[in-house]
């Protein structure tokens, strides 16, 4: 079940389409690659928020069999409910899936083994870890294939997630580590912007001006990195003139051992991811 770059994707169902699932569904719809896209949410209000051209949005409070119906009509089913709700949802839809339907998880901490154990043979599983920039088409998504997912299955799932950003294929053993970098990474960036804004306020700027400076500096630097193709080390060197002000500031940051801070932070996130995977 693979597609060529100029072909439409097979029918898709997004079950529990919260902000992440909804963003991906909208990305597929906006790409023009979606032939049939169905999303489900519990409430009519949530369903209304994702009712856009190209998407059939179902409220389970109005259509109690909506998950079963959507799963039965799809070739790719994306499971986006909260992790604790995943087993019950899988048991609900399992009898309605056609053999060969690809089931994709965007539920953090839920293993491929959990999916395969409930869905049984004949249903290939792919575990994904997208991040919140999917909302603006700039996601980084990690994909890990289950034991029966073929390269063709993975290619279809890759194409779905490429409508909202970049895709990296990894073994499942690396998904939790990936989540500590790209999954949690936006929060690290937002924290840095927050602290740089605070530093500007401390130097006398009003908060609106401080926020504008900090935000646009990060956005501009990221765009320069993307457009130039240069290594970030080289771009930093170009800004850091010998004996200049930036060199003095960088010396302070280096003395704070940011490398160790980020290593410790991502280690802590990884430990928590492993706890979650064990149900802690």
Automatic annotation (TrEMBL):
What are the alphabetically sorted keywords of the record? Amino-acid biosynthesis, Cytoplasm, NADP, Oxidoreductase, Proline biosynthesis
Q: Which residue numbers delimit the Pyrroline-5-carboxylate reductase catalytic N-terminal domain?
A: 12-109
Binding residues annotated for NADPH, in chain numbering? 67
Annotated Gene3D superfamilies: NAD(P)-binding Rossmann-like Domain (3.40.50.720), ProC C-terminal domain-like (1.10.3730.10)
GO biological process assignments: L-proline biosynthetic process
* Annotated NADP(+) binding sites: 15-20
Q: Which PANTHER family match?
A: PYRROLINE-5-CARBOXYLATE REDUCTASE (PTHR11645), PYRROLINE-5-CARBOXYLATE REDUCTASE 3 (PTHR11645:SF0)
Which NCBIfam families is this protein grouped with? proC
Q: What does this protein do?
A: Catalyzes the reduction of 1-pyrroline-5-carboxylate (PCA) to L-proline.
Q: What is this protein called?
A: Pyrroline-5-carboxylate reductase
